[in-house]
Amino acid sequence: MCGIVGYAGHRPAVPLVVEELHRLEYRGYDSSGVACVQQGRIRVVRAQGKLSQLEQLLSQQPPSTATTGMGHTRWATHGAPAVRNAHPHTSNDGTMALVHNGIIENYLEIKNDLQARGYVFHSDTDTEVLVNLIQECRKSEPDIQKAFAAALNMAHGAYAVCLMTESEPDVFYAARMSAPLILGVGTGENFVASDIPAFLPYTRRVVFLEDGEMVRVTCSSYEVRKIADLAPVQARVETIEWDVQAAQKSGYRHFMLKEIFEQPKVIRDGLTGRLSADRGGVTLHELDGLPVPSRLSIVACGTSSHAGMWGRHMLEALAEIPVQVEIASEYRYKEKLLFQPGEMVLVISQSGETADTLAALRRARECGATVLGLCNVVGSSIARESDAVLYTQAGPEISVASTKAMCSQMLLLALMSLYWGGRKGLVDSSKCSAMLGTLLSLPGMLEKALPEMHERAITLSRKYAQSRNFFYLGRGHCYPLALEGALKLKELSYIHAEGYASGEMKHGPIALIDSTFPTFAICLNDELLPKVKSNIVEVQARQGRVIAVTNAGVDVPAEDLWVVPDVPSTLAGFVVLPAVQLFSYEMADYLGKDVDQPRNLAKSVTVE
Ligand code: F6R
User: Fold this and answer.
1) Among 238, 258, 372, 482, which is least packed by CB within 10 angstroms?
2) How far is it, in rounded angstroms, from Cα 8 to Cα 484?
3) What residues act catalytically?
């Protein structure tokens, strides 16, 4: 959703806060703002649009000398993208400013009450309500920390907030409830941010704040307390291993392209330390203490749910575990969650903060299920609340559209299949060494293939960029990749695209096919090849143009062939995935779309 940052230190705060916001812009980019205390008064600067608009505005004003400040980059929830709804929001008395990521669910109730007490609102946001509630609480409790906690205790919902006041110009307060917030511990300076890359150039030492915690921060101190009763909390400082370089573009035109090209490394890193002589050739210590699930419900959203669908094929084939894949936003509201003995839930989330997935996890745990988490972001809410967590180790994914995260999720799902299959005695040594041999060969193979695949994507995008609709077809383990291809195309290039199981076409969708409605078919050299070929012929019979991703030497009746390296069937998804990603990337870039920050989207969807 939105990105928030707070800084207390020895450097000029405003430029530093803006610099940090740049590294969080993937979280929201419809407006932004900063606040500090200047000559004893709260000073707020806000702008609609991207951060460059804010920078332009700031450049027209006298520079600030403040060394404490905070900022916000917004993805609209309450209220349209507009300056009046941009953060920071100030209290009616002008003494406090607040930035907020999340949603205060009972804000209307509070707003009505405050209005009855004479408060006036200038925005449509729940944030302005909260900052005025703090002002109201200060009437009976002048201590800022206590008033802040009192207001937060009245607010229901999800938030990460940062507060500054006129009376303490060198202090900021921050708090979290179901939205990410990390404290960065520096030397003579301290930070908070919605995500670590914001302050990573300045410190690697972090405290992952927990839900229900708040912190008072100065340049030389931080005190973490419980919001409920202000009881002190012993904060644990951890060190981040990855570096700034991993969160920068490294010469690529966009983060998305860089992240697609990082997939060989993601596979290599994901395999490191995971291979062993037993248990299907795979070691997953995280799962050693748990039984092998009798059934598995995989719960996720968007791209992560496509990874789950892909993993189902592997888990069923190798470990003989019956799997169902559920969309988290549906699962969390199911009338009943029915579990069979030994069944487990696996939640998949790159960010580890997706609100629907987190809520599904909580509901499943309340119902007594053991929940496994598959996450990329270390210390994220889903990672911390799962009974066991497997990290995908893909490094920071900055582009809003998820790419390398899906690759890393698929890898871990393949490893889990081998591991559980091994524990059940289902994976014999020849199957095991064949699978591991293929997995180990993937990084090198992809490193060689990706530049050529990129070229092919460039050529095809020029040919098909004028299409307004697309079908993506795949069967079996390629069906989830068809869904992912369609999702990528629509979210990046705003071209309407639908993914279908190839055999479903003739049950309705084929009615749409004509010469202006192309199809992207995944047609690999495997046991389903004859079936997919027939489906392609059916499309062509309606004058539909077809791009077919296929293997060398396969005779496919398509207008455009895209030959990808041969990988044994079940793992072929690892080469199909970059093909669909690169095609969407090139289509969007050629059409002049904002690839890394597509309209209306945010990286981490921490609201329902
Ligand atoms: C698509 C995309 C989204 C996410 C979804 C879940 O490119 O990025 O569909 O996959 O919002 O996010 P995570 O995996 O963070 O739970």
Assistant:
1) 238
2) 42
3) 2, 603
Ligand 1 touching residue 403 (CB < 6 A): no
Query: Is there an atom of ligand 1 within 6 Å of 308 CB?
Result: no
- pLDDT tens string 223-257: 999 999 999 999 999 998 877 666 677 779 999 99
In angstroms, what is the span from residue 301 Cα to ligand 1's centroid?
A: 6
Q: Is 351 in the pocket of ligand 1 (CB under 6 A)?
A: yes
302-319 vs 404-423: helix crossing angle, rounded to 10: 20
Confirm or reject: Cβ of 145 under 6 Å from ligand 1. Answer: no
202 residue type, one letter: Y
Q: Contact, 478 vs 572, CB < 8 A?
A: yes
Report helix, strand or coil for 163: strand
Report how far ligand 1's centroid is from the alpha carbon of 82 (Å): 26
Q: Please state, in angstroms and rounded to a whole number, the distance separating the CA atoms of residues 242 and 230.
A: 33
The response to whether residue 19 sits with its C-beta less than 6 Å from ligand 1 reads: no
Rounded CA-CA distance 603/350 in Å is 10
Nearest CA to ligand 1 atom 7: 401
* DSSP assignment of 501-568: EGGGGGGTGGGG-STTS-EEEE--SSTTHHHHHHHHHHHHTTT--EEEEE-TT-----SEEEE-----
Asked if residue 443 lies in contact with residue 451, where contact means CB atoms within 8 angstroms, the answer is no
Q: How far is the CA of 99 from the centre of ligand 1 (A)?
A: 24
The protein residue whose alpha carbon is closest to atom 10 in ligand 1 is 303
Which of 358, 403, 493, 605 most suits a substitution to test ligand 1, by most atoms within 8 Å of the C-beta? 605
Cα-to-centroid distance, 122 and ligand 1 (Å): 33
- Mean pLDDT calculated for residue range 400-411: 97
Nearest alpha carbon to residue 301 among 329, 320, 274, 340: 329
Mutate which of 305, 351, 400, 595 to test ligand 1's pocket (most atoms within 8 Å of Cβ)?
351
Centre of ligand 1 from the C-alpha of residue 545, in Å: 30
Phi-psi group of 403: left, alpha or beta (phi > 0 → left; psi -120 to 50 → alpha; rest → beta): alpha
**pTM across the whole model:** 0.78
Reply yes or no on whether the pLDDT at 1 is more than 70. no
What is the mean pLDDT of the segment spanning 316-329? Answer: 97
- Could you give the C-alpha distances from 334 to 329, 337, 373, in angstroms and in order? 9, 6, 20
Q: Is the pLDDT of residue 174 over 80?
A: yes
Asked whether 36 and 66 are in contact (CB, 8 A), the reply is yes
- The CA distances from residue 221 to 186, 218, 304, in Å, are 10, 5, 39
Ligand 1 binding pocket mutation candidate from 194, 255, 304, 382 (most atoms within 8 A of CB): 304
Q: Rounded to the nearest whole angstrom, what is the distance from the C-alpha of residue 600 to the centroid of ligand 1?
A: 14
249 within 8 A of 427, measured Cβ to Cβ = no
d(CA 91, CA 332): 36
Which of these, 276, 242, 281, lies nearest to 262 by C-alpha position?
A: 242
Name which of 396, 358, 385, 144 is nearest 262 in CA terms. 396
pLDDT tens for each residue of 533-578: 999 999 998 999 999 999 999 999 899 999 999 998 899 999 999 9
